[in-house]
């Protein structure tokens, strides 16, 4: 409860103070002489009268919205009932600078407020004072610490100062702005002071140092005021890179020009093959001229060579320039070429290099992409990982190499022709019978409706198998199947020839494979001819349709005559595997 009472009392006290306080707008008015302005004092309740005192005016202004008795000064505000007391000044005078006081009559008492009225006065012209003294001729030596002070006097308010060198910010070390006040005829004025300093170099010679003041009275029609000083520096001839002169004509008088900077004027001498030629002198075909002043401490130095020869273009011309502060040596080369050699690439070359690099990067990226995704020229390649099947294939290939192509059989299948080695034959036929006879090849027949796509890696009903391909029916296959009716002597002879053919099985161009492959008719006929030629029967036997093999009598078992003579395993004429 006590807290609520305290809050209520504070609100009442704040309201009372607000009513008793006079608010002013603005607190400070900064104006130029002749400007128009409005000053206002406000109170929270109705007021009875409004009086305003302005410095430089002899009487107090009693203002009201109903009348205006003083020329140049009128009432400003929403009315006395609104608690506003203001004045509008038509033209501000320099004598009006000071505090404007407003008095408001409120319920038998008078309240007052003040406004600072500042009438700006334009300061005097800036002045540059040298703290570092030059010599009698007004020059500073190279490396001297230059110091200067800029003063802007009698301004209201105080002026700001900025430094420039040739209309560019100086960017040198300066001291903080110092403001000093003074009173003249009861008028308070201000003076601004700032210093600048740095070490001089040849580039500072003949440059203009500017001190510029910025003040409230600056207008578009009245630019800022400034002071300037020209800096003169004395220095030895400035060193520069080796010079080269192009476009000279052989067998003509060559004029070699070079521009150097120095202060004061330098003396010149040329050294050519050990011979010294001073300025204004001639030695043989060489003439040295007096330096010509070009302005801004620049001098043109000229050497004339009469009857320029090709040997002259291979020489190095040494130039020495000296003055009171030192000497500098220069080297000059001359050439009869019209243009100097380009030390950098032109725009076209740069663009060409960039395009070539971009194309190269694009090609590399495309190759990496094609290799990673198996596209284009990498479409037929794949990364082989070691599996059980690949290990078995390697073992079969190794066994075939050890057998040197012996005991290799051609199997005719619905899907093509397969070469079987001796190890494969033994796997199919078994280890032989107990009577020691030669192992025979037993072939398992499959029904037509049985799916053999897993073994052959293809669908027998698909387009891979071409039913129009004529099966390979040769004497070799029929004799291997035991269906030939020839006598045993003929069988032995042809068996040896067929064995030779089988021993050269790898020369037929048919790769060994676990799965059957089909061959187109033209390729199959070509392989048949090659087989005939390798067996020595290509000239005597035509590659016509082989004779129809005869079915052997039941129970007949053909054995090898000699155990050392390789025999051909007998296969059925038409086999389905």
Question: What is the secondary structure topology, with strand pairs?
Answer:
Blueprint: H1 2-20, E1 23-25, E2 28-32, E3 37-42, E4 49-53, E5 61-62, E6 73-76, E7 84-89, E8 98-106, E9 109-120, E10 127-130, E11 140-141, E12 145-155, E13 160-165, E14 168-169, E15 173-174, E16 178-184, E17 187-199, E18 207-214, E19 226-231, E20 233-234, E21 243-245, E22 254-261, E23 267-272, E24 275-278, E25 281-283, E26 286-288, E27 292-295, E28 298-305, E29 317-323, E30 326-334, H2 347-373, H3 388-403, E31 409-413, E32 416-420, H4 422-429, H5 453-456, H6 475-480, H7 488-503, H8 521-535
Parallel strand pairs: 2-9, 11-20, 21-30
Antiparallel strand pairs: 1-3, 3-7, 4-5, 4-8, 6-7, 8-9, 10-12, 12-17, 13-14, 13-18, 15-17, 16-17, 18-19, 22-28, 23-24, 23-29, 25-26, 26-28, 27-28, 29-30, 31-32
Helix pairs in contact: 7-8
